[in-house]
Amino acid sequence: MHEDGFIGRIEWAVAGRALPGQHISGDRCVVLDAGGGAVLFAVLDGLGHGAAAADAADRAAQVLAENRSEPLDVLMVLCHRAMADTRGAAVSLALFDVKDSIRWLGVGNVDSRVLTASPAGLTVRAAVLLTGGIVGYRLPQNLQPQTVQVRAGDLLLMTTDGIVAESAEGIDLSRSTAEITADILARHAKDTDDALVLAARHRGGTTNGVS
After folding, report:
1. Is pLDDT of 185 > 50?
2. DSSP assignment of the chain, as one string?
3. Quick one: pLDDT at residue 145?
4. Model pTM?
5. What band does 167 get if pLDDT is binned at 50, 70 and 90?
6. Distance from C-alpha of 54 to C-alpha of 164, rounded to nearest angstrom
7. 91 near 58, Cβ under 8 Å?
């Protein structure tokens, strides 16, 4: 599965695949125009794999689409309620706004990082502080979104645990997000799980096209 496009000035792409031998993946990506130049990105990893994992992730995706303007902590609670009779999922949310910042919140093991170019090479500007739990089964009581400032060209990278942790090494920020995600999936997807990677960045200027 490969998708990419633009929303306003934000370029994004996602690449994913099911566990080898399975026909359906429990990993999902949600990309939503949240209004006012903001884009809501979500990566959902249904517990386990197969149809039951996909059902959990699909319920969360529907809730996010219907409530995209709500604060991130509220969205997490709504996802939790919607998945109450499912396996549950790891969920990471990132709101990329017009003020060049990302507000994010993660429960479970969906990793989110912001990568930036520096004189020393590619570095991690920030990483989301994940909270333990399973959305739909055990939600932490204290949900505190964080905010990180980003510059044009910085890359938001969100990966499920089906992608090895070192997947950010060797990324060429001059490439498109579609190329970056396709390369990470091809080189770093584990053979033991569903896998999904999302990349997004502010391109600067104004972009109205959608691929």
Report:
1. yes
2. -EEEEEETTEEEEEEEEPPTT-SS-SEEEEEEEEETTEEEEEEEEESSSSHHHHHHHHHHHHHHHHSTTS-HHHHHHHHHHHTTTS--EEEEEEEE-TTSEEEEEEESS-EEEEEEEETTEEEEEEE---B-SBBTTB--S----EEEE--TT-EEEEE-TTB-GGGGTT--TTS-HHHHHHHHHHHHB-TTS-EEEEEEEE-SS------
3. 93
4. 0.91
5. low
6. 21
7. no
